[in-house]
Write a structure and sequence with these properties.
Layout: H1 2-23, H2 53-57, H3 72-92, H4 94-97, H5 99-108, H6 111-133, H7 138-155, H8 160-180, H9 188-201, H10 205-227, H11 239-260
Helix pairs in contact: 1-3, 1-6, 3-6, 5-6, 6-7, 6-11, 7-9, 8-9, 9-11, 10-11
Length: about 260
């Protein structure tokens, strides 16, 4: 039953993520505004806005103008649903996989699952926006920081101060890169994002997270250079690598640490 709820939440929040990631960079109303076709600008009916299913039934075309609907919509919905499902299974087996998962589950019980899904949803929106627009919205970063710090205070986690040190230390490190490269090697959005993510992971997972972020970024950059999709001076958003690494470390960090640093 819980798994079914998680899948439905993944689809619904995936649809919401497509709307947020499209509207926020364009300063459009994302609270009450109706979904519209990006080509004919007509409102999309609720039955044409069912995650993934509507895209398949409409054969990827708008019912009104027959214009092609971007594959980004079902792809985002599908990917976030997969993240939600994986999170659910790791949440069940948290002692074996995730130190972070264990901390929250021990104190919040079932609520910890929905807390984690919310955190991953907001991070997923940041990943999409930064990938498509090379910006990280301050409002989402601030919302992440508020949710994480408030939850840690409520559960009385004594590691909140160490988490803040981790977050601000990574932010300071990224800020140095930003200043030394005059903004070309690192954006200020990445600097701000490091604070809530470091707070969430704490020590030693924060170190593993930022290292993995640079490794993934380097791998993708090399692949793009080899394939001719980018040049040596091309700007590549770092936020998506921070978010992807954050999700991986949040879910499997403890297991990965035991593999690479056996104690």
């Amino acid at each position: 039953m819980i798994l079914l709820i998680v899948i439905l939440l993944g689809l619904v929040f995936g649809s919401f993520a497509t709307a947020l990631s499209y509207r926020i960079p364009r300063s459009l109303d994302w609270v009450s505004g109706r979904s519209k076709c990006t080509k004919c600008k007509k409102d999309i009916s609720w039955y044409d806005n069912i995650p993934i299913i509507s895209y398949i039934l409409l054969n990827g075309k708008c019912r009104n103008c027959k214009g092609r609907i971007s594959l980004r919509y079902p792809l985002i919905e599908f990917c976030l649903t997969i993240v939600f499902v994986i999170t659910y299974f790791v949440w069940i087996a948290y002692p074996q996989g995730s130190q972070v998962m264990g901390v929250y589950r021990n104190t919040l019980g079932l609520l910890s699952l929905f807390f984690l899904l919310t955190i991953f949803f907001l991070n997923f929106v940041i990943l999409i926006i930064d990938y498509e627009n090379k910006i990280i919205p301050d409002e989402i970063v601030f919302l992440l920081l508020t949710i994480m710090s408030s939850t840690l205070l409520i559960i009385g986690d004594k590691n909140i101060y160490l988490g803040l040190v981790c977050g601000f230390s990574v932010a300071f490190f990224l800020l140095l890169i930003n200043l030394l490269t005059k903004g070309k090697g690192m954006g200020l959005g990445d600097v701000k994002l490091a604070i809530p993510l470091g707070l969430f992971l704490g020590y030693p997972l924060t170190l593993f997270w930022i290292l993995l972020s640079f490794i993934l970024g380097a791998i993708v950059a090399i692949c793009l250079l080899v394939l001719g999709k980018a040049k040596r001076k091309s700007e590549i958003a770092f936020g998506p690598f921070m978010v992807l690494s954050f999700i991986i470390v949040s879910l499997f960090g403890s297991t990965l640490l035991r593999l690479f640093i056996p104690i």
